[in-house]
Design a protein that fits this description.
189 residues; alpha+beta; Alpha-Beta Plaits; 2 domains; 9-stranded mixed sheet
């Protein structure tokens, strides 16, 4: 079985090993040879990335046919009501595609959440709220597009969980190696 690394990607870091255009890459945090990212996070998103040297596992983690659930925490501008959450749950028409139904709920700001550097802009007259969204697909900037489409733009986005793996105990920029999943475990199997 191959190696699996869980990494808490900080804001502003690219989902590739090389640095580019003033943004650091994964290579500035992870010095393990031969592992590759199973999926991506935009530079302005934070959170869980999985890296592996196992090509079959990498494919399984990223192939939408396996419907591996991914949990995101989104701080949004405004305070979404039940109607907005229901639109997210049913699937959102983004013009170029309609998203799969998602689980969506309001949540308190996550306890012990690390500060973002740079901080999210603060506007005294505009409230914010936190949402938990669980998706089984991961198209480019999908969460941000979904929340904006229902009227609540994302200010901060953290991927907390992929399948059975989470950021629990991982500070930004930190990584840990984990055991490969047993049959069906961790990989949505």
């Amino acid at each position: 079985m191959g190696r699996i690394i869980l990494f808490n990607k900080p804001y502003g870091v690219l989902s590739q090993f090389t640095s580019e255009a003033g943004h650091p890459g994964l290579g500035e945090f992870i010095s393990v040879a031969g592992v590759y990212a199973a999926g991506r996070l935009d530079a302005d998103s934070e959170g869980l990335m999985i890296l592996t040297d196992d090509g079959r596992l990498q494919h399984r983690l990223t192939d939408p046919r396996h419907k591996l659930p991914k949990t995101y925490w989104a701080q949004v501008e405004g305070e979404p009501d039940e109607a907005a959450l229901e639109r997210l749950r049913r699937g959102v028409d983004l013009g170029d595609f309609v998203t799969r139904p998602a689980r969506a709920r309001r949540m308190d700001e996550p306890a012990g959440l690390w500060p973002r550097d740079p901080p999210v802009r603060f506007r005294r007259n505009v409230p914010t709220a936190w949402l938990e969204l669980v998706l089984t697909e991961g198209k480019n900037r999908q969460v941000r597009r979904m929340t904006a489409k229902v009227g609540f733009p994302t200010l901060r986005l953290i991927r907390w969980r992929i399948g059975d793996w989470s950021l629990e105990g991982l500070r930004p920029g930190a990584w840990r190696e984990v055991a490969p999943p047993s049959s069906g475990s961790g990989s949505g199997g």
